[in-house]
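REQUEST ID: PR-0412
SUBMITTED BY: lab tech R.K.
PRIORITY: routine
TASK: structure prediction, single protein chain
INPUT:
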Amino acid sequence: METKTFMAIGGHVGDMELTVGGVLSTLSLSGYRIVTVALTAGEKGNPPHLTTDEYRKQKIGEAAAFATMLGGISEVLPYDDGLLPVDDTVKFQVADLIRKYKPVRIFTHWQNSFHKDHKACNQIVKDAQFYAALPGFRRELPPHYAGGPYYAENWEDATDFQPYALYKIPREGFELWQKAIQTQWFAINSKDFKYYEYYCSLKAARGKLARSDYAEAFDLDPHHKTIVIDTQKL
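STATUS: complete
OUTPUT:
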């Protein structure tokens, strides 16, 4: 039986590692394959001692290091941080990755954000999911439908976000994430925002609501929130 794959697609290296990292770590411990995709490296958050080009190389390495710790794969597309275009070139690149890795579910950014790359990523992923699924879009690889998207909880994407679904994260999944997130320089060393502390606390708080040690929250599109009740099983 083919191993199920889960794919997390973010605007920058580090976005999905922070927000979905606990779920990805837990899934990896359960034997599933993890693929992270960053549409930009996020290089313009460079520390003073590195140029943006140097930091881009570092960020690509950080993406690979995180994925490797989960036994997974990372992909970083060559777009400039802050200038992510929303066009069919990007959408078909992402669609091709969906067809290549065949994820059963996609995680990505919520639609509302004060970061333009996050909003762009949301639009790109939804159209890429559509392009990947339809046989009428003829590409090198056959079509594949990926479930979701599930939209990750992110302090930069908070407007109108509703924590509709909670994914439980057991302690061992959280501890693997704690180790893996150390690969992300900005998450540990940023002077602008305490990323590591914030997401540790958020996962713990969501865990209490999920009656678990830790959890991560996700929103869904309205058409995925339909509840079907079988009246014969009430």
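NOTES: The domain at 5-233 is CATH 3.40.50.10320 (Rossmann fold).
REVIEWED BY: pending
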